Amino acid sequence: MPSYGTGRKRSVEVIRNRASETLHARIKKRLLDNIVGGTWKPGAQVPIETELAASFGVSRMTMNKVLTQLSNEGYITRHKKRGTFVARPRSQSAVMEIASIREEVAALGERHRWSLLERAVRPLGPEERALLNPMVDAAADRLVVVRGVHFSGEVPFCHETRAINPRACPAALEQDFETVEPGQWLLDTVPWITAQHTIRAINASRAEARVLALDDGQACLEILRQTRTSADWVTTARLLYSGEAHQLVAQFGPGGRGNAP
Question: Which domains, from first to last, does the chain contain?
Answer without folding.
Answer: 5-86 (1.10.10.10), 91-249 (3.40.1410.10)
